[in-house]
Structures are given as structure tokens and as C-alpha cells.
Amino acid sequence: MSGEDAVEGPAARHALQAKKAEIVEALRNLGETDRAAKDRAANRTDRETWGVPGEALNELAKDLRGALSVDQRVLIADAIWRDGVFDGRLLACKLLTQARIRPDGGAWTLLSAWVFHFDCRAIADAGAGALQRRLMADPERSEVLDEWAGASNVWTRRSVFAATAGFAKLVHPSDAQMAVRERVLGWAETMRDDKRPVIRQAIDAWLRDLSKHDPDRVAAFRAG
Fold it and tell me: Where in this chain does the entry annotate a coiled-coil region (predicted)?
């Protein structure tokens, strides 16, 4: 069933809108005022922030992943993301964070568009977690890294490394997975003199992960 099929007809669209409203209300009710102020300050964001604790947000996302079809998750995640609320964007990413999603074209389309609109650490981290699983599912998608690396948005550039951490951690990578590693290392070389802390930290973290499994390759990179 396609996303369009999932909302075919007024009744289906109304049901989906009602479900989305129910989810948003549940999310907002989990918020804590004091935590909202801390989240806003920690992420340096002007977005509306409800202060939902991470554990509660993860539990809600887990329950929804089990209760909704893939198409419903994609459509509801898209609608929640469009609202622009900090906690909602975290939930939208987590609704699509799963190793096996079949089919996953809709999830990939959303996530690969959202990456250009990451605007703080928490949202970028949540998005990277979801993107990583889709890249691991289909390494050929790594061609998008070239576009991310050239983006003006620092959080998009950071995703080149944050969303490919899984490839650095592989013990026995396939040829396709090795190709992704080399693509990322190429961008690490290009960005190694970037003075933005978030980029430097992301590269260092990626190399630390790789050094646990291929220390010779990391040594060669650093020597170069």
C-alpha cells in the first residue's frame, strides 16, 4: 500500500488526522516545564519545546512503531515534523528509526529531505540515528553524502559522519560497506581543517570507532 493509498478517501484522511492529533496531545502531556527550558537552552533553539524526557519519548515512539503501519508512520511523521515543535521533530525521527522497514522508500524520502533542515544537536542526532539504519539497509544510498558534505548547514555536513557511524563499527564489512567507509574518509580528509567544533568532533568520533576495527587505515589517514 502506498502513502497515497493509506489516505484514500475523506474518512481515511480524517482518521489519520485524528490519530496525529491524538499522538501530539499525548506527546505534549509528557512534557515538563522545567525540562523544556533546559532543552531549549542546551540546544540553542527557538523552537517551541515541551520538555519531554528522552525515556518517555522513546517509549512513545516504540509503542507507535508497533501499532502503526509503515505508511501510517511515514504520513504521521511527516505531519508532526511540519508542525516544527522540537519534541515533535524528535518523535518524527524516532517513528522512522528501525533497522527493518519494508518498504522503506517513503521513510528514506522524508529523512533525506529533513537532513537539510536539522538545526540543533538533538534533532540532528535523532535524524542521524534514523538515517543510519536506512543507509545500512542500502549502502548505495551513500551517494547522497556528497550532497550533504557540500551543504551550507553545518548539521547536514555533520550527518556525513553521524549517519554513517555504523559502517565504521563493522567487524567484517562487505565490499559495498567498505566503499561507504572510503567515501566517508574522503570527506573527512576534505573537512579535516574545518574549524566548526561539531564537525571536528564528528570526524574524531567516527575515526575512533573505525580505529577499533581497522587501526591501520586510521593510522594511514592521520599520516596523510
Answer: none
CB atoms within 10 A of CB 21: 11
pTM beyond 0.90: the answer is yes
Which tens digits make up the pLDDT trace of 131-181?
999 999 999 999 999 999 999 999 999 999 999 999 999 999 999 999 999
DSSP string, the chain: --HHHHT-SHHHHHHHHHHHHHHHHHHHHT--HHHHHHHHHHTT--S------HHHHHHHHHHHHHHS-HHHHHHHHHHHHHH--HHHHHHHHHHT--S--SS-HHHHHHHHHHGGG--SHHHHHHHHHHHHHHHHH-GGGGGHHHHHHT-S-HHHHHHHHHTTHHHHT-SS--HHHHHHHHHHHHHHHHHTT---HHHHHHHHHHHHHHHTT-HHHHHHHHH-
Segment 20-67, tens digit of pLDDT: 999 999 999 999 999 999 999 999 999 999 999 999 999 999 999 999
CATH 1.20.1660 describes domain 11-137: yes
Intra-chain end-to-end CA distance of the chain, in Å: 50
Q: Which CATH number fits domain 139-223: 1.25.40, 1.10.3210, 1.20.20, 1.10.357?
A: 1.25.40
- 99, three cell numbers: 533497522
Place of cell 586510521: 218
